[in-house]
Amino acid sequence: MNTQNTESKPDIYRVKLENESQGLLECQKKHDLNSCFECTNLIGCETRKNYVRAVYDSMSQGESGGFEF
User: Fold this and answer.
1) Contacts 24+ apart (CB under 8 A), 49-53
2) Are 39 and 31 contacting, i.e. CB atoms less than 8 angstroms apart?
3) CA dist 14 to 19, 20, 50, Å?
4) pLDDT tens, 44-58?
5) 3-27 tens-digit pLDDT
6) Is 29 contained in some domain?
7) Which is nearest to 62 in space by CA: 8, 21, 24, 4?
């Protein structure tokens, strides 16, 4: 078993989640919102879609099947 690959996997997902989370918070701040649910662009928003995907990937570590929004 290659432990280097196993150890670096969670780090990749954690970094991606942190980046997407920061992007989401910046978008909310830019639009003076406390939540995406207050936004008129909620449906179809790529920023939120990327964030949700990053959350799912960080939880599953990329090991499970697809996830559709």
Assistant:
1) 50/20, 50/23, 51/20, 51/21, 51/23, 51/24, 53/20
2) yes
3) 9, 10, 14
4) 999 999 999 999 888
5) 455 555 558 999 999 999 999 999 9
6) yes
7) 8
Helical spans, DSSP H, in the chain = 3-30, 46-60
Residue 44 DSSP one-character state: T
Q: At what angle do helices 3-30 and 46-60 cross, to 10 degrees?
A: 150
Is residue 68 assigned to a domain? no
Q: Residue 3: inside a domain, yes or no?
A: no
Q: How far apart are the first and last CA of the chain?
A: 34
Is residue 66 a part of any domain in this protein? no
pTM of the entire structure? 0.73
Whole domain around residue 43: which residue ranges?
A: 12-59
Residue owning tokens 């954690």: 14
Number of domains in the chain: 1
